Amino acid sequence: MRLRHVLKTLTLSLIAMPSFALAEEKPNIVIILTDDQGYADVSYNPHSPPEVSTPNIDALAHSSMICTQGYTSGHVCSPTRAGLMTGRYQQRFGIYTAGEGGSGVPLDEVFLSERLKPAGYISGALGKWHLGLTEEYHAMNRGFDEFYGFMGRGAHPYFDHSDMNHPIYRGLTPIKEEGYLTTRITEEAVDFIGRHKDEPFFLYVAYNAVHSPPEAPEEDIKQVTGDETRDTLMAMIKHLDMGVGEIVHSLKKHNIFKNTLLIFLTDNGGSGTMHANNAPLRGFKQMDYEGGIHVPFIVSWPAEFNGGKKCDVAMWSIDLFATALDAAGLPMPKDKPLDGTSILPALRGDTDILHNELYWSSAGAKGKWAIRSGDWKLVAEKNRIELFDLEKDLSETTDVAAKNPKVVTELTSKYNAWLDEMANPISKQEKRWNPDAGAPAKKMSKEEKKAAREKRKSE
Question: pTM surpassing 0.85?
Answer without folding.
Answer: yes
